[in-house]
Amino acid sequence: MNNSTLRLLDSDPQACNPVAAGVDWKLDAACRGQLELFFARKAERPEARARREAKAKRVCDECPVFHECRTIARANCEYGYWAGESEEDRHVLGFRVTAPIGLRARLADQEKRQSRSA
pTM for the full model? Predict the structure, then answer.
């Protein structure tokens, strides 16, 4: 822990928020060691992404640090699947990332399907 974290922990333990204080909540995360479920591979197809995120969601649903994870992902505009949300989900909710990866691919895929059926 760095000095600012130690000072925060020493100053007021009742007001200490583990996310803000820098306590490593990730040690209790259900996803530890499963990065391939939570971050897209290069050129991942939309169908593969949907399957991967469905598996990741099942892990997130059982996670003891779900709320801490979601707070960090939203506050830091993270990429990847965090606490049951993709970067696209966070983008739609108003937590903007620079370029939501899935959103562009899904919109292009929907446009192709609509043009084929028309």
Answer: 0.64
